[in-house]
Amino acid sequence: MRMRPTLSWTPTGEAPPGTTDVGPVTEALSSGGVLVLSGAGISTESGIPDYRGEGGSLSRHTPMTYQDFTASTQARRRYWARGHLGWRTFGRARPNSGHRAVAAFERHGLLAGVITQNVDGLHQAAGSENVVELHGSLERVVCLSCGAISPRRTLARRLEEANAGFEPKAATINPDGDADLTDEQARDFRVLSCTVCDGILKPDVVFFGESVPPQRVERCRAMVREASALLVLGSSLTVMSGLRFVRQAAQADRPVLIVNRDPTRGDQYAVTRVALPLGAALTAVADQLGVTVDK
């Protein structure tokens, strides 16, 4: 029986309470060298829902797994139909005040870098430069046969031409970039193959059930080792791909600070969890530091 990936987490025991005091975050950033680990919660104010927060997409939507995608032509048709429709909205998303605050902190020399679990590219769009995309990016497409990388926008144009008149209405967009469609709506969608070798195309992102490339993990581990503190922004830390860096930081006596409205799987390792919306919290921190955030 195929194992499903870990999609949810239930708190056990007494979780440390959240606070509205951003002072500890301000203090950590004032010393510089802070490493940011961001999750889907930082992009909700850009119109991209998260997985597990209030109204999160996992309440109605199970993300595509790597095993299903590679094993089933029907699954790939469903994914690309949803993904093509979702891209029209996802590709128009713009950075919010949280992304812009992170970029401002970097410009002022307060950050050691950003590790993001998101695939939306909004940190870079806001101006952040030292960003590791832990789970890849929807901006790129990779061929599973020859490894060729191509821009997602190029494939989007090809799909538009191959599926003229494809205009179903989706219920909503999801954090992984696809949209909620029924199998009936996706039934006649035409999937395209690699222009180099005719192989299977996949967005250059880490699907659930797929491993983050080891060299990328090691780069992130090195960033944690060199950081003065780890600041987690908008992640429930449910999956190990992000939680391992929190554990690493705590084991190395690096302070872990979390800004997330709901409890997280990493709260036990944190010196504080600020239970505020990301935009408001980071704007307040910027004000306390005297850092100007772009509008």
Low-confidence regions? 1-7, 52-60
Strand order of the largest sheet: 3-2-1-7-8-9
Major sheet: 6 strands, parallel
Q: What is the H/E order?
A: HEHHHEHEEEHHEHEHEEH
Task: Walk me through what this model shows.
- The chain has 295 residues and is an alpha/beta fold.
- Helix content is 34%, strand content 14%.
- It contains 10 helices and 9 strands.
- It has helices spanning 23-30, 66-71, 73-90, 97-107, 122-126, 152-162, 183-186, 214-226, 240-251, 278-289; strands at 34-38, 111-116, 131-133, 136-143, 149-151, 201-205, 229-233, 256-259, 272-274.
- The strands form 2 sheets. Strands 3-2-1-7-8-9 form a 6-stranded parallel sheet, with helices on both faces.
- Helix 1 (23-30) crosses helix 10, helix 4 (97-107) packs parallel to helix 10 (278-289) and helix 8 (214-226) runs parallel beside helix 9.
- The longest helix has 18 residues, at 73-90.
- The N and C termini lie far apart (51 Å).
- 45% of the residues are buried.
Features:
295 residues; alpha/beta; 34% helix; 14% strand
Note the topology.
Layout: H1 23-30, E1 34-38, H2 66-71, H3 73-90, H4 97-107, E2 111-116, H5 122-126, E3 131-133, E4 136-143, E5 149-151, H6 152-162, H7 183-186, E6 201-205, H8 214-226, E7 229-233, H9 240-251, E8 256-259, E9 272-274, H10 278-289
Parallel strand pairs: 1-2, 1-7, 2-3, 7-8, 8-9
Antiparallel strand pairs: 4-5, 4-6
Helix pairs in contact: 1-10, 4-10, 8-9
